[in-house]
Amino acid sequence: MIRRDFLRRVLYSGTALAATGAAARAITPRIGQDATPVLDLFKVDPLNLTDVNLTGTDPPGTQSLPTFTAIPFRLEDVRILDPDLLRMREQTLDYLLALDSDRLLHNFRVNAKLPSSAEPLYNRESPTNGWRGHYVGHFLSACSQMYASTGDVRLKAKAGAMVSELAKCQAQLGDMGYLSAFPESGFDDLEQGRPAAVLWYALHKIMAGLLDVHEHMQNPQALQVLEGMAAWTDWRTGRLPEEQMQRTLQIEFGGMNEVLANLSAVTTNPRYLVVAKRFDHHAVLDPAAQGRDTLTTLHANTQIPKFIGAAREFELTGNPRYRDAAQFFWQQVALHRSYVTGGNSASEHFRTPPDVLASELTDLSQETCNTYNMLKLTRQLFTWRAEPQYADYYERAFLNHILATPNPADGSPLYYLGMQPGQWKVHFVPHEGFFCCCGTGLENFSKLSEGFYFHNEHSLWVNLFFASEVNWREKGVILRQETRFPEEAGTRLLMQTKSPARFTLNVRIPYWAEGASVTLNGKPFEPEQKLEPSSYAKIDRTWKNGDRVDVKLPMRLHLQPIPDDPTLAAIMYGPLVLAGELGTENLDPKRIYSDDKFLHGGFPAIPVPELAGDRNALDKWIQTVSAPVDKAVGQKAVSQKNAALTFRTVNAGRPQDVTLRPFNRVFNQRYCVYWKFRPAVEA
Ligand SMILES: [Zn+2]
Asked: Looking at 490-609, which runs of residues are DSSP E strands?
């Protein structure tokens, strides 16, 4: 409970909020008053935008709010049927259940001077690490999303108990709402420009976790603890002149603007949007809003959440500067600073100018958190206008980075997805990795379906091709997707509905699919416009129970050269990045697990073959080793699947030919994604 002296300090401290009277609303305890809290993050209308000047120098209340073209289905409404995704989710679920809550809470209790006899965790959750506490936030988010995806009540109980314990720590830490695993004095250092840890970063994860528990588990205590933290954040940041606040933003602060904007939408309280805006890092956002790329040399994952927050602030304020910044940033990173996998960064930084990547094929390429965050931003930008370029990128990064990370043996995530030819995937030792990518790694596999389907009042979008079912409650329609994609080059969509329903079905035609075709109940569907790659097949009709749409998406081999060196190129098959299997020479397979994100070296490099095939005729020298499997039944299908989508070069490898498989299926050995091409040899 927040006491009256705090209320007085907020009201008379000269913050923007003091003038609005919004502070009084925010500290009103919500428990018991709001039996059905607003849970829809996309609900923007109720904010009273005339209360405060939300857009800096812009006149208040003069900008209209944007509307969404397509919003994602809730995790609860999508049922995954794909066996590989189910395995990954199951491994993560088991891990969430196995994590020891007392160990996770240890640093919070120590900081609050509450007793704890638990054994401390390791690396970034060790008792002296500046990141401590962040993993608990990811844990809460992952439990919430996993609960929404599976309905497993054990997660609800576990996350709920943890929120109760965090509430005790918060109460013990005073009456300001502060909650963290480290002392508040660290913020003095941060504000005074002294060396400081990534304090806001850790707090952002905890706040986002609490919001997720509230949203997915309808836990009012989570919202109460979160509002306490937000009130403290308001007090802490409201005291600082803007220039000083901006200086603190030079230290990584996660998505503080995003979580506060989301809280504002959930509670319909504009106060939190004012606080969110204090975390707008102008040195980075302003150039992007003007279409200037100033990212070179910057730490990559520090920047992405700032733009996720900006996108959310656009949705809640209508200020086009936020929109322009988020869209420009996405374009630069997704289209000009990413590898063929959709991942970005080398040694965690944007080290080179746009479209310069040939020098960036290192063992420390592609921090996995970055792709987690880029997918979040991409999903958000897709909702605005449902543009296919966002869905194309989403598929690229989801299939070729996220799904390429968990070791099939145990689901263990990884930090970097190295692009150095001859590199191997280095996974965390289960139960010993508590780095950022372990936290986002938990989340990735607890919300697997969130990019699959979108909708609005009269349209449904199918963006990804995985065996699954979506329940469109408002329309009384269940759409079932039956496919063995990517083993199968297409999908079929089956309608289940008690009564006919009129809507437009938008089926994505990916950037890689030339010659796509659609049949409706067995008859060719003739679209108004040709089904070009990177578009949608739009079928507007009254759908009946049993209606069936078959989609053929021809896959072919294609090359993606690195932008600044035409002799360096990756080979793709349809949506899949193929990697060469290079074996375990000079590599102890047991040592591909590490408890340190930097332990990627230690084994001598090996020579990697170069390719001398004709780059314009890949079919001539890359042959299928086994044809795609036609019938999936039982155990036989599993072994067939492991062999499917396997290719081999023929008389083109120098000094020897190589076997190519989807990068997301190559584990426990060396690989190569970008090949050095020699001039083609005439036959
Ligand atoms: Zn990370």
From this structure: 490-497, 501-509, 517-520, 523-524, 535-543, 548-552, 557-562, 565-573, 576-581, 593-594
The residues near 624 (Cβ < 8 Å, ≥ 6 apart) are 646, 647
Q: Where are the alpha helices (DSSP H) in 358-458?
A: 368-385, 388-400, 436-444
Determine if the peptide bond prior to 486 is cis (ω within 30°): yes
**Quick check: 30 pLDDT over 90?**
no
CA of 99 to the centre of ligand 1 (A): 19
pLDDT of residue 18: 30
Residues with C-beta atoms within 5 A of ion ligand 1: 367, 369, 436-437
Q: pLDDT band at residue 626, thresholds of 50, 70 and 90?
A: low
**Environment class of 484 (CB within 10 Å of its CB; exposed 0-12, middle 13-18, buried 19+):** buried
Ligand 1 centroid from CA 567, angstroms: 31
Spatial distance between the Cα atoms of 486 and 82, rounded to a whole number of angstroms: 11
Residue 102's alpha-carbon distances to 119, 136, 439, 591, in angstroms, are 8, 11, 17, 30
Global pTM value = 0.90
Q: Which residues pair with 623 in a beta bridge?
A: 648
Nearest to 169 by CA among 222, 110, 228, 127: 110
CA of 553 to the centre of ligand 1 (A): 34
User: What is the Å distance from ligand 1's center to 27 Cα?
Assistant: 34
Place of tokens 């705090």: 6
Question: 290 is written with which tokens?
Answer: 């003007």
**Cα angle for residues 478, 67, 219 (degrees, 5° grid):** 65
**CA 373 to centroid of ligand 1, rounded, Å:** 10
Gap from CA of 328 to ligand 1 centroid (Å): 23
Report how far ligand 1's centroid is from the alpha carbon of 161 (Å): 27
Give the Å distance between the CA of 348 and the centre of ligand 1.
9
Other beta carbons within 10 angstroms of residue 619's beta carbon come to 11
Helix axes 368-385, 320-330, angle to 10 degrees: 130
Q: How far is the CA of 445 from the centre of ligand 1 (A)?
A: 15
- Determine the distance separating the centroid of ligand 1 and the alpha carbon of 124, expressed in angstroms: 11
Cβ-contact 466, 80 below 8 angstroms:
yes
**pLDDT for residue 51 is more than 50:** no
Average pLDDT, the chain: 89
Ligand 1 center to residue 369 CA distance, Å? Answer: 4
Instruction: Quote the ligand 1 centre to 367 CA distance (angstroms).
Output: 6
Is 57 exposed, middle or buried, given 0-12, 13-18 or 19+ CB atoms closer than 10 A?
Answer: exposed
Domains of the chain: 453-488+490-552 (2.60.420), 557-676 (no CATH)
Span from the CA of 202 to the centroid of ligand 1 (angstroms): 13
The DSSP code for 656 is: S
| Residue 83: how many other CB atoms lie within 10 Å | 14
